[in-house]
Amino acid sequence: MSVSRIVSLSVIAASLAACHRNDAPLVVQEGKTLFQQRCSVCHGPNGEGGQGPSLRAIGGRKAGGDAKFGYTKAMAAAGLTWDAATLDRFLAAPTEVVPGTAMVLVTPAPAERKALIAYLLSLPAGPSSAMGSAAVAAPAAPLTTDASGARTGRSAFGDYKTDAPGVRRKIVVADLPPPFATESARNSAKVAPQPDGATLQVPPGFKVARFAKELKQPRLLRTAPNGDVFIAASDAGEVQVVRASADGTTGDAPTTFASGLHDPFGIAFYPPGDAPQWVYVAETNQVRRYPYKAGDRTARGPGEVVVARLSPEVGGHTMRSLEITPDGKTMYVAVGSQSNVAEDLAMKSPAEIASYEQAHGLGATWGYEEDRADVLAFDIAGKNRRVFATGIRNCSGLALQPTTAAVFCSTNERDRLGDDLVPDYVTHVEEHKFYGWPWYYLGDHEDPRHAGKRKDLVGKITVPDVLLQPHSAPLQLAFYDGAMFPPEYKGDLFVALHGSWNRGSRTGYKVVRVKLKDGAPTGEYEDFLIGFVVDADHVWGRPVGVTVAKDGALLVSDDGNGTIWRITRG
Questions:
Q1: Which of 47, 69, 133 is CA-nearest to residue 502?
Q2: 151 CB neighbour count, 10 Å cutoff
Q3: What are 437-471's pLDDT values in tens digits?
Q4: What per-residue string of b and e applies to 14-46 under the rule 16 or more CB within 10 Å gives b?
Q5: How far apart are CA 241 and CA 253, in angstroms?
Q6: DSSP assignment of 453-518, as one string?
Q7: Contact at 8 Å (CB) between 202 and 209?
């Protein structure tokens, strides 16, 4: 499943002359291994492109040269040609060479850079993708609904053309098509400026207005106890702070709370309550905390490393969500997978698997996927580490239910099985449970790319609560605990859907409301904020973060055009 902060080696290409050596075949093989472990989740198993651009025939190409891919504004305007010296600099420090690039993964070792480049130069020129383009989508299904009016069956899948505020959907496991029922699409959206007359749409009685603009690709949002809005500006390596006006309608110019971070995303305050003393920040592979007092807009001192390493390997999904329990005793950190589905993982014997799972949890992967695709738990000092749950490909949104402290995840599921596989999901997460990745999905549905490898897991996979339209890319989620919205919204979840790339008919690019009854998800969700899609090829916004403001308004970040939107009850 696509997701926005998946590492995009958008221009790993030709450090050309370095590859002419006697051991070139060995270097190429080393590069292939590194590429498939770290880069294929974005660029495809053979560099053909996917969520990231194609890297075929990259040598001598201009930056931003894949016409099928929607680059960041920074990369499109970089004006670079990828020769050996430029590429070596870029891979060593991508955000310094192209500030604002979405490719933030640093490759510090010269030997690894050389190997990656050797492999890429070995790829033959050809189509930018072995997958289908956006052109062919399944015909619209006849509308079917349940007794409450929620769309069901094939019509629940839909696409952006079927979105409207209040449209409800309920997808169940029985609705799933078989793998490869459609060709796997490469259909990345290109982000355009907001067209004249384009407006966002919300349910009757609500209003939406711009809260802040011209931000540095704002991603996760977190409301401080005093009402300040903390922003993860991941690509800039910063945590920023915006303060609302007296009437709450607009935010002022952001200030930088902390900088020099590696892809920061998760933010939490400690201790819980009105007077936190620390701001915890989850980076790609560590957690820091900064001294803080209510009202601070810059950190009171340097960051202190609380967790020095989350996993042995970096790459792939880079966002790390973070939550601290209301009693202040436990810190949860979600760590996404390095690859799409760990296809080239060397198998262990049954005895080796049993021993490994004692320490890493049921169904856990090893090798370059060790301690990935899971939710980890620590004490507040970063000690007493344990694996809380496994088999969650990319829990890019993590939230605690206010009344129970139950853990909830919004999850980007796997790609390249067809338009309608695999649905992303929102679910409560139970300790010691296994949610399927990479061996199975949504119960005992075996991934054909791992056929026969883990029959011992049949009957042991937990099915998630709410299935979303496939490839929607859910990111941050937030429980509504404010007082501005009608009472029936209290305790429900809002989820930002960043939008699809691996689906012929575009979906996502909206905010949805996940309904709960007596604290449990019903399996149903409804469109809440829509209107970012321009046409089949273009969008003018991509929702990422959601947070409830101190006055009860809902704030939504859009990293496509650097905006935060404010939704109020009219």
A1: 133
A2: 22
A3: 999 999 999 999 999 999 999 999 999 999 999 99
A4: bbbebbeeeeeeebbebbbebbbbbbbbbbbbb
A5: 9
A6: S-GGGTT-BPPPSEEPSTT--EEEEEE---SSS-GGGTT-EEEEE---SS-SS----EEEEEEEET
A7: no
Pick the closest to residue 418 from 186, 189, 190, 188 (CA basis): 186
Q: What gap in Å lies between CA 64 and CA 289, rounded to an integer?
A: 36
Can you tell me the distance from the alpha carbon of 228 to that of 440, in angstroms, rounded to the nearest whole number? 42
pLDDT band at residue 12, thresholds of 50, 70 and 90?
very low
Neighbours of 352 (CB within 10 A): 11
SS3 state at 143: coil
128-162 residue pLDDT tens:
444 444 444 555 678 899 999 999 999 999 999 99
Separation of CA 28 from chain center: 30
Q: Are 265 and 232 in contact, with CB atoms under 8 Å apart?
A: yes
**DSSP structure class, residue 367:** G
Cα–Cα dist 27/47, whole Å: 17
SS3 readout for 413-460: CCCCCCCCCCCCEEEEECCCCECCCCCEECCCEECHHHCCCCHHHCCC
Name the nearest CA neighbour of 284 among 336, 324, 339: 336
pLDDT tier for residue 76 given thresholds of 50, 70 and 90 = confident
Burial 402-424 (b: 16+ CB within 10 A, else e): eeeeebbbbbbbbbbbbbbbbbb
Q: Please report, for residues 160, 203, 344, 531, 543, the alpha-carbon distance to residue 165 in angstroms, rounded to integers and kept in the order given.
A: 12, 5, 42, 10, 16
Kindly give, in sequence order, each residue whose CB lies less than 8 Å from that of residue 144, ignoring residues fewer than 6 positions away.
Answer: 151, 152, 153, 154, 155
Token pair, residue 49, equals 């492109």
Structure-block tokens of residue 308: 């020095």
Place of tokens 């890493």: 360
pTM (2 d.p.)? 0.87
pLDDT value for 152: 96
d(CA 359, CA 385): 11
Cβ contact 191:560 at 8 Å: yes
Q: Identity (one letter) of the amino acid at 158?
A: G
- 8 A C-beta contact, residue 63 and residue 11: yes
Check residue 389 and report its DSSP letter: E
Q: Indicate whether 109 pLDDT > 90.
A: no
